[in-house]
Specification:
single chain; alpha/beta; Rossmann fold; 2 domains; 3-stranded antiparallel beta sheet
Length: 444
């Protein structure tokens, strides 16, 4: 199956479908699409991805870019037949329902492999496809994963754990799933046999808790809360500068600390002179003097002055970047870390993070900025062998639907058509602001 899209990237020729809403599953597909895979996002005919209306559509313009969109009712016989035809065309199928949902529907891995023996199946959930049955069937959001993985226990104060934002558990799980999908696809090309991947939020994030997890499990101790500073090493923190900005400064290792002490003027201090530090710990006698001088040093200088010193002494220091800083930063600009593209769903150009990582010979690109609900039903179904008459019948039966259209030129032709499209309030305002619809279209 070959849909109309540019050919680019290391994954060109790889066919992927994603069934799910929210973050982890579609984000996994989006990452693959940014590097050239042909990705179809499947939504329910009567249950669009609820993130369509989140934050004025910006969410959709970012995390649903480079994807085709179709709707499908899995519960009908016709919907099951469409799904079977689609599976036969895929290399990777990603779903992020609650654990056991596909088995409950009768769509076990074995059934999917009977249709396509080489299929890579990626199950993304909060608690997995196996384990304690009471956990497997539980729903999970990002904060659920943060709590169950122990991530939330590392942050906040002794009196209150703290959720980390943006939703790192969702995004990290999506990245983990993308890695596993590509590793499995490589193995399929060698063995000829499909693979099933069971990715969970909590296991993804218990794995990346550094030494705390192995220490905690082995010695049966809990990690202290991270109150915005390193809990054992002094200096791993943010400091306010003379011009009101914040800088991070983390000095670790004997050479870096030696250069850092010279930078802040403590190299000749009797407490520090002639001594070698791998790290400066809170329990050390020099901890408080060192921390006091770091605060004074930053408060006495502007960020530009501190940055000049950091280059001179080769000490890792960075300004606390915000989005407006990133737009003007020369390194962001030189690496083209921020790209601009037209969002079909929103109707105007947006600026967003560029595809990453960067590849020299087969770079990623953004060719589409998120589309409407069921926008590509017809093109996909025709590629699967259905006729115009059959597709029309599917619309009439509700097997497929298109509830929200994009801002395609020429689509909004009259008031009746406009009313039937199901535009969201923010989309109507955007259409009006861009002169795409007459005022009378939105008047009762």
């Amino acid at each position: 199956m070959k849909l109309k899209m540019p050919e680019f990237g290391i994954l060109r020729g790889v066919n992927v479908a994603v069934h799910g809403s929210a973050v982890a599953g579609p984000f996994c597909g989006c990452l693959l699409g940014e590097h050239g895979a042909q990705v179809i996002h499947i939504e329910g005919p009567d249950q669009p991805d609820y993130l369509r209306s989140y934050e004025k559509g910006y969410f959709f313009a970012l995390d649903r870019r480079n994807m085709f969109n179709m709707t499908l009712d899995y519960s009908t016989d016709e919907g099951r037949e469409i799904f079977q035809r689609l599976i036969k065309e895929l290399d990777i199928y990603i779903e992020n329902q609650k654990g056991g949902t596909y088995a409950k529907w009768g769509l076990t891995d074995e059934v999917l492999w009977s249709w396509n023996p080489k299929l890579v199946i990626v199950h993304i959930s909060g608690f997995g496809q196996s384990g304690d049955p009471e956990y497997v069937k539980r729903a999970s959001y990002d904060f659920t994963g943060q709590a169950f993985s122990g991530l939330a226990a590392h942050n906040g104060t002794p009196d209150s754990p703290q959720m980390v934002k943006p939703p790192l558990c969702d995004y990290g799980t999506g990245m983990n799933a993308a890695f596993a999908a590509m590793a499995a696809l490589y193995r399929v090309q060698v063995s000829g046999e499909g693979e099933s991947i069971d990715v969970t939020q909590f296991e993804t994030f218990i794995r990346i808790q550094q030494f705390q997890s192995i220490l905690g499990f082995t010695e049966k101790v809990n990690a202290p809360r991270f109150e915005g500073i390193n809990v054992t090493i002094v200096g791993d923190s943010f400091y306010k500068t003379k011009d009101g900005k914040f800088v991070s400064c983390f000095m670790s290792g004997p050479k870096v600390i030696e250069r850092g002490l010279k930078m802040i003027g403590l190299d000749e201090d009797p407490l520090f002179k002639g001594r070698t530090f791998n790290n400066i710990y809170k329990s050390d006698e020099v901890a408080e003097p060192y921390l006091k001088r770091m605060r004074e040093y930053c408060a006495e200088r502007t960020y530009d002055e501190i940055e000049t010193d950091s280059k001179k002494f080769s000490v890792p220091i960075s300004i606390m970047m915000e989005y407006t800083d990133m737009l003007e930063n020369p390194h962001y600009q030189a690496r083209e870390s921020i790209c601009e593209y037209y969002s079909d769903y929103m109707g105007f150009n947006v600026k967003a993070p560029a595809p990453e990582p960067k590849l020299t010979k087969n770079p990623g690109m953004i060719w589409r900025g998120g589309v409407g609900h069921g926008e590509d039903n017809e093109e996909i179904l025709k590629e699967l062998g259905y006729s115009d008459a059959e597709i029309q019948k599917m619309h009439e039966q509700g097997t497929i639907k298109s509830l929200f259209k994009t801002f395609t030129e020429g689509f909004v032709k009259d008031k009746k058509t406009f009313k039937a499209t199901g535009y969201l309030p923010w989309q109507i305002e955007a259409l009006k602001a861009n002169g795409r619809i007459p005022e009378e279209f939105v008047k009762e």
